[in-house]
Amino acid sequence: MRFKLDENIGARGQQLLREAGHDVCTVVAQDLGGAADEEVFRRCVADRRALITLDHDFGHVVRFPPLTSHGIVVIELPSSPSLTSLLDRLRDFLAVLAVQPLGRELWIVEAGRVRIHQEE
């Protein structure tokens, strides 16, 4: 699958996704670091890539409609986040992705579950 990682997910997350066989690029590599969320979303749509982010703003389905995207994945971390917790959530995401494809949906990846928002 084709992913774009937001600037809040670093090299270890990128490596994990690539090792799982995915095509991964980053917001930073495309000179979008610090860009407005709307610009990041537009680039993901134009590049036909699903966005993976820690930014809860992308969970606002009216502002960022999943149906117009190639998928949005918001990673939820504990109040005291760590690299281990981030990598664990990415592994949880990959486990679900192995049995269910990410479509034009919003996935919220939390410890122990993935909530999928599907529009009608």
Textual characterization of the structure:
- The protein is an alpha/beta fold and 120 residues long.
- It has one domain: Rossmann fold.
- Helices cover 29% and strands 22% of the residues.
- It has a six-stranded mixed sheet, with helices on both faces.
- Strand 4, helix 3 and strand 5 form a beta-alpha-beta unit.
- The longest helix has 15 residues.
- The protein is globular and about 30 Å long.
- It starts with a strand and ends with a strand.
- The mean pLDDT is 94.
Short structural description:
This protein is of the alpha/beta class and 120 residues long.
Chain-averaged pLDDT? 94
- Helix-and-strand structural type: alpha/beta
- Helix percent reads 25-40%
| Beta-strand proportion | 15-25%
The major beta sheet can be summarized as:
6 strands, mixed
Number of strands: 6
Give, in spatial order, the strands making up the sheet with the most strands. Answer: 2-1-3-4-5-6
Q: Give the domain tally.
A: 1
Along the chain, the helix and strand elements come as EHEHEEHEE
User: Any idea what the shape is?
Assistant: globular
Please work out how many helical segments DSSP would assign: 3
CATH topology: Rossmann fold
How far apart are the termini? 23 Å
| CATH class bucket | Alpha Beta
- Give the second-level CATH assignment, the architecture: 3-Layer(aba) Sandwich
Stretches where pLDDT falls below 50 for ≥5 residues?
none
Keywords:
120 residues; alpha/beta; 29% helix; 22% strand
